[in-house]
Specification:
Layout (H helix, E strand, L loop, with lengths): L19 H29 L7 E2 L5 E2 L3 H10 L16 E2 L7 H8 L22 H8 L1 H29 L7 H6 L3 H29 L7 H30 L4 H30 L30 H4 L14 H9 L10 E2 L5 H30 L9 H10 L1 H26 L17 H8 L1 H23 L5 H27 L5 H16 L6 H32 L8 H4 L2 H8 L1
Antiparallel strand pairs: 1-2, 3-4
Helix pairs in contact: 4-5, 5-12, 7-8, 7-9, 8-9, 9-17, 12-14, 13-19, 14-19, 16-17, 17-18
Length: about 600
């Protein structure tokens, strides 16, 4: 029966003295069991190819069919994506417990609300053991594996043809490998900046937060003073963490694009992780009462003065003494929890995560090799399809016909770069890191390639960032709008929260491009927060479901062609037609536009 129930324990029945009715009942019971197990087999097979969430892990990353305990859990809590799981089949995976006393808080927040301050209004993401979709498809489907082999063959062909062209034209081979060495230049400086960011995030943030959470009721006689002081220090730290690395990259050392991307992406990762850690633990820390201020159990405090959420809005030390639940009275999670979270491939802090029992080092090695090959593949795409088209831009007047031709000629390389970078980072890199950390929930993306709308694409392209935006931007902004305007939750408030998410995401994406490229050219911001947002809002029906995916890919590839074309033209315009830098507008007006006016 494969994953079905083992029926070997059903012995041949002894029919002597057994009535026909009893025998029919036994056969009917066996028939019902068989039909039920076959239904489960068919359902699981269909789900495994539908891009769903139900790819569970064996120890070491091997796929496992879902057993009874997981299905029972799904039947109790529902089949949505945020269902909590106890692991793959119960005993094959373990949880990363940071502190046994955190269980009650975890159970409370899993039911909706609690430490995250959601008050039961929003669903809280629960992690469970799952493999990445492509990991499963590449293992189970020969058709998907064939597509993977085709991409590998195209890479080899591109590599050979580039070498031949280089030899015939320049009598040398691998001269374009300098693209990689130049982009990743000044690595010692990059490593130094990263180490400083890592140490400050690891030590300064945790110990500062721990000091505040432990002593907020003991110092100054009023918790509001400590809370205000910590908030000011926290905002100042986040601001400095945002400004200093950017200044070092663009002003002090003028790092090349890839080196700048390493620093900036790590900067954003640390900023989001710190925010998640503080955001998830603040409510619990504000409920913490030191032992010196606790009353004996089963006593009531007459001077509580606390809010319904359990947090004191103010008051003296005497007003904060009260009886507390020892299991929930935690000032700050253990340092091991925070340390694991900083390296885990997620932006949502939890006291525990599902984990595999072992590490498959062959899986780690193969994913790191795929990451390096994807970098090489991207360098070849840029050198073969982009550089020859735009290398002379800025030396002559702007030509709209040439621009339109360039847009269509950039559709293929733009799409290849999109797929390559997705596979390199969201699949290969994150899976390698997850395997080394035994992090079992590996849904870093979903089946975005089957999207029929931009809304579906935004939700499935990068699940790691989407979860962060959903939890801390959309949900929090919706709560803020409700409190700010004093109205109930409605479609208008939800629309404003989604708009906020798009604006924040577009600004962050534009910040990354500005830092990496070294110039201001807000095409991505306009397309992301403008065209992309309204496409998502207006195109929400499936009247032409058969062609929706085709329309989506048509618009996506056109958008990639426009982005590659505009940014490549601006890059070479900056090189071939540099601005004088006498006024601020020289930096704000794109050179591809200014050169057109000048010529």
């Amino acid at each position: 029966m494969g994953r079905g129930e083992d029926l070997s324990h059903y012995e041949e029945p002894n029919y002597d003295g057994v009535s026909n009715t009893s025998m029919e009942l036994n056969l009917d019971d066996l028939r019902r069991r068989l039909i039920r197990k076959i239904d489960v087999e068919v359902k699981e097979t269909l789900e495994s190819f539908s891009g769903g969430d139900d790819f569970l892990l064996h120890p070491g990353g091997r796929i496992q069919g879902k057993g009874g305990s997981v299905n029972d859990l799904r039947s109790q809590q529902g089949s949505n994506e945020n269902v909590a799981s106890t692991g793959s089949g119960g005993a094959t995976s373990e949880q990363h417990h940071c502190d046994e006393t955190d269980k009650s808080a975890a159970e409370r927040t899993a039911r909706g609300g609690g430490d995250a301050g959601e008050s039961g209004l929003f669903r809280r993401k629960q992690f469970r053991s799952r493999e990445s979709i492509l990991t499963v498809l590449l293992r189970q489907s020969k058709n998907i594996r064939t597509i993977y082999n085709i991409f590998a063959a195209v890479l080899v062909h591109l590599f050979i043809s580039t070498c031949v062209n280089d030899w015939l034209k320049n009598k040398s081979i691998f001269w374009k490998i300098e693209i990689i060495t130049w982009n990743f230049g000044n690595l010692p400086i990059v490593i130094t900046i990263w180490l400083v960011m890592q140490v400050s995030t690891l030590l300064v943030v945790y110990h500062l937060y721990s000091f505040w959470a432990t002593n907020r009721r003991l110092l100054f006689g009023d918790v509001r003073i400590m809370d205000t002081l910590f908030l000011v220090i926290y905002i100042s730290y986040q601001t400095a963490f945002f400004v200093v690395p950017a200044y070092l990259c663009r002003v002090s050392y003028q790092l090349p694009p890839a080196s700048t991307l390493i620093v900036i992406l790590e900067q954003l990762r640390f900023l989001m992780k710190v925010h998640s850690f503080v955001r998830e633990n603040a409510a619990r820390s504000m409920r913490y009462v030191p032992k010196s201020l606790q009353k004996k159990p089963n006593t009531l405090s007459t001077n509580e003065g606390s809010s319904p959420s359990g947090d004191d809005s103010g008051g003296s030390l005497s007003s904060t003494s009260r009886s507390v639940n020892a299991e929930d009275n935690i000032a700050c999670p253990d340092f091991s929890c925070y340390l694991y979270f900083l390296f885990a491939p997620t932006l949502l802090y939890r006291d525990e995560y599902p984990m595999t029992d072992s590490i498959d080092w062959n899986f780690v090695r193969s994913n790191f090799i795929q990451t390096a090959v994807c970098i090489l593949y991207a360098a070849f795409i840029v050198s073969r399809f982009i550089f020859p088209v735009f290398s002379e831009f800025g030396t002559q007047a702007f030509d709209w016909e040439l621009f339109i031709q360039s847009v269509f000629s950039m559709i293929l390389p733009g799409t290849l770069l999109l797929v390559t970078f997705h596979f390199m980072f969201l699949h290969s890199w994150l899976n390698a890191c997850a395997e080394m950390l035994r992090f079992a929930d590996r849904i870093f993306y979903r089946d975005w390639w089957t999207s029929t709308s931009y809304g579906q694409y935004y939700r499935t392209w990068n699940v790691v960032v989407h979860d962060f935006l959903k939890a801390y931007i959309m949900y929090d902004s919706e709560i803020l709008f409700v409190k700010l305007f004093g109205i109930k939750r409605s479609k208008n408030v939800h629309f404003l929260s989604i708009l906020t998410v798009f604006l924040v995401s577009a600004l962050v994406h534009e910040y990354v491009i500005i830092m990496a490229a070294g110039f201001f050219f807000p095409i991505l911001f306009i397309m992301f927060s403008g065209c992309g947002f309204w496409f998502m809002i207006l195109v929400q029906n499936n009247r032409f479901d058969r062609f929706q995916n085709t329309i989506f890919w048509f618009l996506l590839t056109i958008g990639m062609g426009v982005l590659i074309c505009w940014y490549s033209q601006e890059w070479y315009a900056q090189q071939n037609c540099p601005h004088k830098g006498e006024f601020l507008m020289d930096y704000l007006i794109p050179r591809s536009v200014a050169c057109y006016w000048e010529k």
